[in-house]
Design a protein that fits this description.
Elements: H1 3-29, H2 48-62, H3 79-90
Helix pairs in contact: 1-2, 1-3
Amino acid sequence: MTTQPILACEKSIKSTIESSILAYLNDTMSIVVCSSDHDLVEAGILDSLMLVDLILYIERAFNVSPSLEDLEIENFATVARMAKFVAAAQLGHRYRNGDDR
């Protein structure tokens, strides 16, 4: 019974995180992302320096500190994965690409 409200809350949190990351990409990096599932690294939209800047933003904006193990490019390739990573980190979990949460 309690899983539905929790899942709805998690989706809302991820949506808020996605919106914030999308705004940062647009406002700071002049990158317009059409889909939160679009692979920004594979498409060549984010280079290594931009990725570092984005990770620093995520650390500051969401008060998360990725460990060395967390700094897998797959965790930061799409806005959706970034949001899942942040939500998991805020809940004290380690996000691995492919997690359904």
